[in-house]
Structures are given as structure tokens and as C-alpha cells.
Amino acid sequence: MLTKLRPPKDKCDPSGTSCSTGIKLGVMSIGAPACGSNAAVRSFVRVALTKGYEVLGLHDSFDGLIFGNTTGLIDPVKPMSWTDVQGWSGHGGSLLGTKKCVGSRYGMQKIAEKLKENNISGLLIIGGFEAYHSALEMAEARKEFDAFCIPMVVIPCTISNNVPGTDFSLGADTALNEITDICDRIKQSATGTKRRVFVVETMGGYCGYLATMSGLAGGADAAYIFEEDVNITMLRDDVFHLKDKIVNMGVQRGLILRNENANSNYTTDFIEHLFSEEGKGVFTCRKNVLGHMQQGGMPSPFDRNFGTKMAAKALHYMSDQIQQSVESSGKVYRNDPASAVLLGMQRRHLSFTPVEELKKTTDFIHRIPKDQWWLKLRPLLRILTKHKEKAYTPEGIFAGVDDFEDEDNI
Length: 410
Fold this sequence. Notes:
Distance between the termini: 20 Å
């Protein structure tokens, strides 16, 4: 269906402006760019057109919606045709344009006025923590502004993987591939130099997912994150571990990962200087801040397929909500919690969770979920590098193939 040249003639014209239902849907990105968002937009636009919905692309997030065409280069709110999204699934970044901001920064009244002005009856928001937070703000503002009483779906898309209600976010897989590939090259450099330790800083805000998982994949000696306290005793023990590894085990290199917000005092520079001083005569130390290259690259096959499936499922859910709430005049009015949801993968299943329910499981100060599944893998990281660490307890369930016969499995 997605690879056809045009939508069905009885549902929508090729330009995407004359559709059978007469209902307009909006799609926008909020937050930092992440791979997979373009695949999600492509899927949403094309599936919506086949169902007879007109899709408005809201370029540059709330900036385009509220301030209009400030650049003179593009129309910030315009119908998206079948061919507009051709080839998008293989592109990284956000072709729709995105801003890292929440709705309250612009004022909920202004956003409501623009949604009503453009007659938007359903909204898909693709992005990270800001996207989830903005959807929550709009859901809570429904009592004041009925323009928000429409179906709203959030697709988590961020390399940080810090959005509540989902185990995985779009873009995180591609970012992990990028970091692991870079760490492999850094280890190659360290091995060639002999007896060198690299301290590598990853992104992720206050979420240590990238540092932990890339550390597991890249064979790091340690990964410092915000969720686990970093102290001088831990740093001292890691220096001793690296010395023993290089002197007695014959390993000629070391790799330390640090999340960018792991600790405000034990910075990447501090750790590099500490290891350089304490490792004198045994190893040398260098640092490497990966920066925004973690957001780049071509989307991985997983992120392309994940984004395509998530957007299609979001459209079907939104369509059901619209059909249940459309009035005879054509206006869509829906204000129950189930109409403002986040679509996430939880234990291999795609599920919709009301954003108002997720509020109680969110640490808004540090912009992370209160419970994160991957933290249980932390002991395994140190065991694999032969640290003296407590035993790792695996978490899982035993089940046969028949136990997972569900179309939502991935």
C-alpha cells in the first residue's frame, strides 16, 4: 500500500487537498531530531490519504503553526500529498522540521486558536520528552480550550529513550549503532597506541540509556550515569581495575563511557585528568565528546520499520476515535483521557497509554521515567569487564511461540 504511486481515487486526489471524509489531521515534530521520524511521517500521511483524510504538515513545530512563514522558503502549514513524502523513510533527521520546546512556552491559547483556524480534527505528535509534555499540557487545557478536544497521539522519537510509557523510542537504535561503531574505532586507536584509556561522553540528558547500552555493546570498562551515584571511591576502583587489566591481563586499552549529565562535579574533563594523573607510568588517557553526530546517520532498518508500523497504528487508532465522536456538522469533539495517548512498546507489545496516566510515573525535573527497565542490566556491564561485582539477576519470562500470537508483536 505504501509503495503505490497515488492514493485511491475514491478517497483522495493526488494533491491531498480533496479527500472523501472532509476531515483534516495534523502531524508535527517536537524535540531534537532523531532517525525514524521521517519514516513515521511518510507512513501516517499515506495511510491517512487512503482512508480519505487530509493531512496538514506543521513545519518547524509550534513555530510554524503560530508564527507562520517567517523564512519565505516554505508554507509552514500545508496539505501533504502522496508524493511529498516519497523516499522519506531512508532519510535521517526531521524533514518536517522540529523545535526543542514545549507548548506552554508559546501559550496554550495561541496554539488552540491556530488549531481551530486550520480546522484540525486530529493531531499526531512525533518527538521526545517535549512532545509527550506538550501533549499532556494540551490534554490538561481541554477544560479551557475545546480546540484540544480532538484525538491526539504521541509517537516517542528520541535518541535519549527517556519517554515514559515505552521501552524503546524511535531513533535510539540508530544512535546506539552510531555510538558503538565510533567506540569500536576508538578502541582500535587505543590498542594501536598501546596502554591508552579513552573517556567517551554520550548524549541523553539525564537518561543513561545510551551510555549503558552502548557500553554493553562496545565492551566498555565502566559507564557513569545520572541514575547511579558517581563517587570518588567508584572512580578510584576503576583506576585500579584498569591498571590491573593492563599490567596483569595484557589488555592494552581501556574504554570509559560517561553520560553528559552523570554528575555536575565529576565531569568528563575531571575524569580524564584524574585517570591521567593516577595512571601515570601505566596508561595514558584521552577524552572524546561525541556530540550531535549521535543524532545523524541513516536510520537503521529497525527504526524505519518501527516508525512505519507505529504511525500506521496511530492513524488507525485516531480514525476510530474520530468515527466515534464526529458530529453531524462534521466537527470532532473528544475529551476523554483515552483520546490523548502515547503509543509505546511495552514488553514487545504496542500499546496506547493516556498521557494523563503517565504523569504520575514521570520525573519532570530530570525528564526521565521513574522506572527504567534497562537499569537491571547495569551489573552485567561490570561483570563482563571482570569487575568484582554482585551477581546479575536475569529478568524474563518463559513462553512458547503460541503465547505471542498477536499482531502487535514486533
